[in-house]
Amino acid sequence: MTRYEALTELLDERYSCRQFLPKQVSREVLEQLLSAARRTPSWSNTQSWQIIVTEGDATRKFSEALVEHVASGVPQPDFPFPANYNALHRARRRECGGALYESIGVVKSDTEATTRQFIRNYELFDAPHAAIITTDADLGVYGAVDCGLYLQTFLLAAQSLGLAAIAQAALAAYSPFLHEWFDIPDTRKVVAGISFGYPDETHPINGFRTSRAPLDETVRFVSD
């Protein structure tokens, strides 16, 4: 297998896991994962990211408190979420959401079931670990971009170690709660969360995959 083939295999195999096994990831494997992720390139090598990783009872306590907060709290992300989606982006979102709910037999009109699945985000899909990624506020958008690169490296490193993960903007939606719970200073901004661990490969929700746009929809070559 060439290095390109090894990379594309990881990219093809990786997916957003939405049901995990209760098995903890050993500290040795966690450190392997985080050691790989820190090789991420960044703006002027500023390495703006800092990572909070939960394990053991800390994950359960965080999840339970977050679910309770979400029930009455208002989303307040440190970075504004998109104000609008154009027709193309809406279509891609709907395709993804439709496939997700279809995989577990939920119809869009079933408000109770869709709400329940939404809450699963804050239950971390039963993952034994959560990671919160923050950036230095003074670095602005470039610090956030660097954290996005870190996130991708983290996801691929997890896949290479036999783990599964899901990047979650849903966690960043309640940034004030995260700041308080994890004692994150105001000089840092929450970019995203990640739930991760060992996947429950028998659960139907882990069976669906999202599509990718063809190159001619996203790439423009300039030759002259």
TrEMBL record:
* UniProt cross-references to InterPro entries, sorted A to Z: Nitroreductase, Nitroreductase-like, Nitroreductase/BluB
UniProt-listed SUPFAM superfamilies: FMN-dependent nitroreductase-like
Give the UniProt keywords, A-Z: Flavoprotein, FMN, Oxidoreductase
Pfam families xrefs: Nitroreductase
Record domain Nitroreductase: where: 12-198
Its domain of life reads Bacteria
Q: Check the record and name the PANTHER family matching this protein.
A: IODOTYROSINE DEIODINASE 1 (PTHR23026:SF90), NADPH NITROREDUCTASE (PTHR23026)
Q: What is this protein called?
A: Nitroreductase
**Species of origin:** Rhodococcus navarretei
Q: What is the lineage of its organism?
A: Bacteria, Bacillati, Actinomycetota, Actinomycetes, Mycobacteriales
